Amino acid sequence: MLKRRSFLKSFLAGVAIPMIIPVVARFLPPALKRRLLRPPGALRGQAFLDKCTGCAQCASVCPNQCITMTGLESGLEALAMPVITPRWRACTLCMACTQICPTGALEPLEANLAGMQKVKMGIATVSTGICYSFNGRTCGTCYHACPLPGKAMRLGLLETPIVDPDQCVGCGLCEQACIHMPHAIRIVPVEELG
Predict the structure, then answer these.
(1) Residue 15 lies inside a defined structural domain of this protein
(2) What is the mean pLDDT of the segment spanning 149-160?
(3) pTM score > 0.90 for this model?
């Protein structure tokens, strides 16, 4: 049985911690902040936040179950907004989420090459200092996971991944596939690109 003091400590922690997390998150350096990768077709910046109601229909229709809803770590303004965490599960660009969005926060896109090329979730960046292929050991896993091989990503000597920022859609399949820990390739969300 919980004693009164233990109960009060637990209760106060349960109330205070969710209120403190967003405040602390604002002062973290950019490298430590959680990167928010929006689903395909997402409007940019405040326009997305203004239109998205957090209904989670995009998450429920996603066959890959890659869309999750944010918690308090993103602040109250972005609470319950859809995000993709490519290290956990990347977007397969099926575009189902874009077809079901009732508010227009996600623009409808077709599940074909033309639809894929309209997507701009982010850009893959390679950490050459830790990538196996840039350090004398051939890999190529990220290239083989790319839905636009030869366009968004091509291979150099020893299968070094070379990303074309104009063609990369930021789906995160390369990041999910990367066998190096920590991941040698990561998606920088379009919101961070400016």
Answers:
(1) no
(2) 94
(3) no
Which pLDDT score, from 0 to 100, does residue 4 have? 72
Task: Measure CA 9 to chain center.
Answer: 35
Average pLDDT over residues 123-152: 95
Residue 168 pLDDT greater than 70, yes or no: yes
* Contact (CB, 8 A) for 115 and 108: no
The answer to whether residues 91 and 172 touch, using CB atoms and an 8 Å cutoff, is yes
Burial of 2 (0-12, 13-18, 19+ CB in 10 A): exposed
Q: Is 72 exposed, middle or buried (0-12, 13-18, 19+ CB in 10 A)?
A: middle
In a domain, 115, yes or no: yes
Q: Which domain holds residue 148?
A: 34-193
Residue 149 is assigned to a structural domain of this protein: yes
